[in-house]
UniProtKB/TrEMBL annotation:
Annotated GGDEF domain residues: 250-383
PROSITE patterns assigned: EAL, GGDEF
Protein name (database record): Diguanylate cyclase/phosphodiesterase
Record keyword Heme present: no
């Protein structure tokens, strides 16, 4: 800190110190000269006054010059006058410059101090002094001791002698020095107040401007949270390095590292926890890369690494493993242990791009593939991915527009009783058209909607639209909708369902909610509580796709589901002649009935399958045999018309329906 201040303001501080030193030196030099002049003036005044007294009446100057008629009283009188005038000692010289009287000895001061009658040391004035014409005076001052004063004694315009005076000016000299010192200090203070404070204010303002400029420069080039290069600077630095690739033929790898589920952490633990996680991830990422590599934060939860001087793909794979292992170490946030997860895509230089724009585009595409395939530590970009990404972005745009305009559609597939004789309800299935009016498979657009955070808005619309539609059909029919685990995340699902039921003016018994068992893997207590609240509204809670995934029986006793939906894969296996399928189906139906749950079999397409499930006591059937998913108006025209005579009748009075003609 101190070195940076000296480096930045060294010249200014040095100039200020030089000016201050010059001012102080000048003040003291001028002060010293002023004191000398004041002392000299005082000595000159005292000496001139003493000479005037000697020449005046009673001055006895003649007695001192000739030694005749000089009395002790006269000498005593002159000494008193000298003392009163502040004269320490004096000497009288005749017209030839010969000393004739000295009041005390300067040379033998300790022995002959103020000797009565005076002394004569035999000193003479120089010829240069004697030849000076007219009235003059000489003051000699060494600035430390008392000054001496020499002037001629002139009477009637004739020089009759000379007098030398040593004025007692030590006290006055000290007084002058003290007064001048105080004045100098006051002057310096005034100068400091007038110039020093403005200078300090200027330096302070300059420092703040410099700090602000540094901060602006930092924010223009670095991410304020992680201190890594920001996207703009990362692009500039990457392009700068890439400019040398053609000449050096250096191989490099551009890694796109995405922190998964950051938005969920922000929602659950707060923004501060999300920021803390980002700083931890950035520090861990910086710790595993080489100093020559470039690393930056290029998005809210996205980081980039430009790996230089690689010799093989294995180098990148090894780096990705170190990144994966380092970042995925658990971290404590807001008292909760969180295990970060990342998706990593890589684009190679120069194969996959020669500019930052190309590399980040291709690495991002590769990382999206890694999101769906975590069997590896990273995914390398392949040209075929680009076309898939274009299609994905096209579908994403369609999903976004459908969410904004509520332009999704619901298709309805009939659900009948165990022998196929009576219509019980429909399952509402989401559909999306492209610009040509063709339907996009839900397996394509639903994962994109989930990845981009649209699934909650879509799910809310599905609940509202499905309840609105079922309210227009016979009261004995129900509608079943699928829920995503995301819809349970904010804790407002029950309120959304209650609102939909109230607006449609139907009871909860006309709505069934299907969930998959993976829903209960995370935060099961919170989700189970919401499921219980939904069930309290009279809504049937169904476990969808039973027989796939974990199929853990623990979920069945932790929450008493109302219905199990046997996955359609069992019907496919049955049709393919797989062994033991019928026994498994029998076991599932029997177990569900013992747990007081109904059973719905999906994917029923043949009359033999209907007969088998009827013999096993399956409660409900669903599949192409009874009708494909269709729009609401078509369902009303075909399905409701076909079952119009027996919607509310007893199944024992109605024969088994044959395969629907439209299902062929």
């Amino acid at each position: 800190m101190l070195l940076s201040v000296i480096k930045r303001y060294g010249a200014t501080l040095l100039g200020g110190l030089i000016i201050a030193a010059f001012v102080v030196t000048s003040v003291f030099m001028i002060g010293g000269a002023t004191v000398g002049e004041l002392v000299e003036t005082g000595a000159r005044a005292r000496g001139a006054e003493f000479a005037r007294l000697l020449l005046g009446p009673g001055g006895h100057v003649d007695a001192f010059l000739t030694g005749i008629t000089r009395t002790p009283d006269a000498e005593t009188s002159i000494r008193k006058i000298a003392d009163l005038a502040g004269i320490e000692s004096f000497a009288v010289f005749d017209r030839d410059g010969q000393e004739v009287y000295r009041s005390r000895s300067e040379r033998y001061d300790w022995l002959l101090r103020d000797r009565p009658g005076g002394i004569s040391s035999g000193d003479r004035l120089s010829k240069t002094t004697l030849t000076k014409p007219g009235a003059w005076s000489i003051v000699q001052d060494d600035r430390t001791t008392n000054p001496s004063f020499l002037t001629p004694l002139i009477r009637n315009e004739k020089t009759i002698g000379y007098v030398s005076v040593v004025a007692d000016m030590i006290a006055q000299r000290y007084a002058f020095k003290a007064t001048l010192a105080r004045a100098s200090v006051s002057l310096l203070l005034i100068l400091f107040m007038a110039t020093g404070l403005p200078l300090l204010l200027y330096l302070r303002r300059k420092r703040k401007i410099a700090e602000a400029a540094d901060r602006i420069d930092f924010l223009a080039n670095y991410d304020a949270l992680t201190n890594l290069l920001n996207r703009r600077r990362m692009q500039e630095e990457t392009d700068r390095v890439l400019a040398t690739v053609r000449a050096t033929r250096e191989r490099m790898g551009y890694l796109y590292v995405d922190l998964d589920e950051l938005s969920e952490i922000n929602d659950r633990l707060g923004q501060n926890s999300g920021d803390e996680l980002l700083t931890v991830v950035a520090a861990r990422l910086a710790a595993v890369v080489d100093p020559s590599d470039l690393i930056g934060r290029i998005g809210a939860d996205d980081f980039a690494v430009l790996r230089r001087r690689i010799t093989s793909i294995e180098d990148i794979a090894a780096l990705a493993k170190r990144i994966f292992d380092a970042i995925c170490e658990p971290v404590e946030l807001a008292g909760e242990i969180v295990k970060p997860r990342v998706s990593i895509g890589c684009a190679m230089v120069p194969e996959d791009g020669r500019t930052h724009s190309e590399l980040v585009k291709h690495a991002e595409i590769a990382h999206l593939h890694h999101k769906t395939d975590k069997s590896r530590n990273l995914v390398f970009f392949e040209p075929a991915m680009d076309e898939a990404m274009h299609h994905r972005r096209y579908v994403e745009a369609l999903v976004r527009a459908a969410v904004e305009n509520e332009s999704f559609e619901l298709f309805y597939q009939p659900i009948v009783n165990g022998d196929g004789s009576r219509l019980l309800g429909f399952e509402a299935l989401l559909r999306l058209r492209d610009e040509n009016g063709e339907y996009i498979a839900p397996s394509v657009f639903v994962p994109i909607a989930e990845a981009r955070g649209y699934i909650k808005a879509i799910g809310t619309w599905v609940i509202r639209e499905a309840t609105r539609q079922i309210a227009q059909w016979p009261q004995d029919l129900f509608v079943s909708v699928n829920l995503s685990p995301v819809q349970f995340g904010d804790g407002d699902l029950v309120r959304i369902v209650e609102t939909a039921l109230r607006e449609a003016d139907i009871s909860g018994k006309r709505l069934e909610i299907e969930v998959v068992e993976s829903l209960l893997l995370d935060r099961s207590d919170d989700i189970l509580a919401q499921l219980r609240e939904l069930r309290a509204l009279g809504i049937s809670i169904d476990m969808d796709d039973f027989g796939t995934g974990y199929s853990s029986l623990g979920y069945l006793w932790r929450f008493p589901f109302d219905k199990l939906k046997i996955d359609q894969s069992f019907m496919v296996a049955l049709e393919n002649g797989e062994p033991n399928v019928s026994r498994l189906l029998e076991t599932i139906v029997s177990m569900a009935h013992h747990l007081k749950m109904k059973v719905t079999t999906e994917g029923v397409e043949t009359e033999a399958q209907v007969a088998l499930m009827k013999s096993l006591g399956c409660d409900q059937l669903q599949g192409y045999f009874f009708g494909r998913p269709m729009p609401a108006d078509q369902a009303a025209a075909e399905i409701l018309t076909r079952f119009r005579h027996n919607v509310a009748e007893s199944p024992s009075d109605v024969p088994v329906l044959h395969r629907a003609s439209h299902a062929s």
